Amino acid sequence: MEQFVSVCGVAAPLMQINIDTDQIIPALYLGGTDAKGYGAHLFANWRFRGDGSPNPDFILNQEPYTQSAVLLADRNFGCGSSRERAPKALREFGIRAVIAPSFGGIFFNNCFRNGMVPVNLPIEQVREIVTLVESSHGLAQISVDLERKVVELPDGRQFAFDVPETLRQMLLLGVDEIDQTKSHQSTIDAYRELDRARRPWIYVDPAPMKPTIRSTSDE
Amino acid sequence: MSGSKARPLTFFDKVWEDHVVTMLGQDTALLQIDRLVLHELSGSQVVRALDEAHRTPDSRAQVFTVIEHLISTRPGRGPLDSVSVSGPAMIGGTRAASKKWGFHFIDYDDPRQGIAHVVALELGIALPGSTYVCCDSHTSTVGAIGAVAWGIGASEAEHCLATQTLAQAKPQTMRVNFEGELPLGVYAKDMILALIGKIGASGGIGYAAEYAGSTVRSLPMDGRATLCNMAIEFQAKYGFVVPDDITLEYLKGRDYAPRGAQWDQAAAYWLSMRSDEGASFDKEVHIDCSQLKPQVTWGTSPEQVMQIDALVPDPSLQPDPQSRLEAQRALDYMHLKPGMPLLGLPIDVAYIGSCTNARLSDLRAAAEILKGRKISPNVQAICVPGSTPVKRAAEAEGLDRIFKDAGFEWHESACGNCGHIGDDRFANLRTISTTNRNFKGRQGPNTRTHLASPVTVAASALAGSITYAVKV
């Protein structure tokens, strides 16, 4: 899993409420089973015009925001569909942190598995950052430090934030979450032994195994 | 459990605690996951990632796969038919992995097939007091049976497939109390839209939502599923109804439900999970259902909703500048003006389908409106039953004839046109839809979606414009 400790870079204000994951990456571009290849479709309906050319009015098509490492948004960013291609598309574009007053819960969890940190700050503080960014024509370098749990502006202003500690550690160390869980296997086994006696109906019989067939997707 | 001063617990607290394998630090629990459900849109990605990491499923007996997201709804569809260009590969990949690993697999032509959240209730895959996850934000639908169910991303699903556990921070609890008798022509969809209108699309962030109150207690399973389905539309990842007699009556005898002595043991356990006397919630919301009218959305978020006979709200009345801007953007997208009525607004498409509102009772209610009538010649009307069993049951009752005679298309079951995966037939059109999302572009390029109940959609199909049943 990709590590994240801190980032310092261009921050793009996208100050809308309820930016849903259908906007971040429309369902049309969710095809395929690849782990990558979604950045090209980030905000597809906003970044591109009907003929496929870049929309010059959209902030991520404007300098210096084409280099954004941070995104600034209003509340409920990433609401809607659970599609993990949303944080994947943001990450591939270069975004490492999204700062907003609140996030869709599934999107929030997905960020940590994609080398990105969702930062909750009160709207007044998000607006302070936006004001500074806009007055610098986007050149202000905004720092997000997960180690110290602080957002820092070039003029020295600091805003503390909080994230669930377990997810923070996972991201700071870039640990493989599955390996980490497997290290608790004996505890899991002990839990299940008790649970099987308490709730036997949960442990249904497996489906009968069928011979493996070649699918058309294997070609 | 025997401590005399133990804090009274809610149903949610009890289910959560019974699934904690171990704590991972102070704020996060490693939870046992009783059911993992995968579909071909995300599931295909999950099984490939697992393969590439050279890992194997931990508990295949607790994994279910369903073909439903990308498969075509066209009558006579084949095994790889899809309007999505990637559909065949993703369907094929999910099918191959399901057979390779021996998951419980429900293929496109299985008589039990349908939208995963609909099927999971019909088959008893979702059980009261169980933890249940799926790569889909509407997974909480199965909270109707009293499961603690939530949507996850593909990485979390891969983790669950490899370990049958998930690391989760415990949410706060919210109780939504729906009280009073529903007026004629008002349904569960109107209840949930009214709730979202009241608390907003972010009103549930960080909460698990329990639906309670006299209205919920008397709602059958289908209506409860509609309520639970849209929990994520106010950003509660979890929405559920505490198991009661209606739950047990619904569940008994279903394919994956316990039987015999195990049923008795399970039923006793489920009823023991009810909230303790004096258990409190972090947030309480009250909705008086006796005063509700049919609801319809006017904007591009489910929170932008109004009573159907009201006037489109004026953005300048929104509480803050950002909300004013947002409301204006929504009106521009929807081609609406403040102060205009939605009643009488011409529509191009009437869509009945999705995990929200395409169960048998939804189809029956719509058919009652359509019986012996014809839809407006200006409207394309489509019905996509929520599952193949729903479709078969509807056909056995002759509902398909009513739909078809009225001018509706009658499709095979799948997720269909709830989301835009490649079918442009709704491009630039105005739809009234029983689905759950009116986001920009959700149903197609520049498609303008109004969310409503099946009865409102059926009535509007007849009129050719937005209307509600008692007005037809």
Q: Largest beta sheet of chain B, briefly?
A: 5 strands, parallel
pLDDT averaged residue by residue of chain B:
96
CATH superfamily of chain A: Aconitase, domain 4
Count of DSSP H/I helices of chain A: 8
Uncertain stretches of chain A = 211-219
Distance between the termini of chain B: 57 Å
Can you offer a commentary on this structure?
Chain A contains eight helices and eight strands, in the order ββααβαβαβαβββααα. Chain A has 219 residues and is an alpha/beta fold. In chain A, the strands form two sheets. Chain A has a four-stranded antiparallel beta sheet with strand order 1-6-7-8. Chain A has a four-stranded parallel beta sheet with strand order 2-3-4-5, with helices on both faces. In chain A, strand 3, helix 3 and strand 4 form a beta-alpha-beta unit. Chain B is α/β, with parallel strands linked by helices and 472 residues long. Chain B folds into three domains: 12-168 and 244-266, 2-Layer Sandwich (Aconitase, domain 3); 172-242 and 276-291, Aconitase, Domain 2 (3-Layer(aba) Sandwich); 295-471, 2-Layer Sandwich (Aconitase, domain 3). In chain B, 32% of the residues lie in helices and 17% in strands. The radius of gyration of chain B is 22 Å and the shape is globular. Chain B starts with 10 loop residues before the first helix and ends in a 9-residue tail after the last helix. Chains A and B meet through helix 4, helix 6, helix 7 and helix 8 of A and strand 2, helix 2, helix 3, helix 5 and strand 8 of B.
List the helices and strands and how they pair.
The complex is a heterodimer of chains A (219) and B (472).
Chain A: E1 6-9, E2 11-14, H1 21-24, H2 44-47, E3 70-73, H3 85-93, E4 97-100, H4 105-112, E5 117-120, H5 123-135, E6 142-145, E7 150-152, E8 158-160, H6 165-173, H7 177-182, H8 185-198
Parallel strand pairs in A: 2-3, 3-4, 4-5
Antiparallel strand pairs in A: 1-6, 6-7, 7-8
Chain B: H1 11-19, E1 20-23, E2 28-32, E3 35-39, H2 40-52, E4 63-66, H3 87-101, E5 104-106, H4 116-122, E6 131-134, E7 148-151, H5 154-163, E8 165-169, E9 172-179, H6 188-199, E10 207-212, H7 214-217, H8 221-229, E11 238-240, H9 245-251, H10 260-272, E12 283-288, E13 295-297, E14 305-307, H11 321-334, E15 349-352, H12 360-370, E16 380-383, H13 388-396, H14 399-406, E17 408-410, E18 430-433, E19 448-451, H15 454-463
Parallel strand pairs in B: 3-4, 3-6, 4-5, 6-7, 9-10, 9-12, 10-11, 15-16, 15-18, 16-17, 18-19
Antiparallel strand pairs in B: 1-2, 2-8, 13-14
Helix pairs in contact in B: 2-3, 2-5, 6-8, 12-14, 12-15
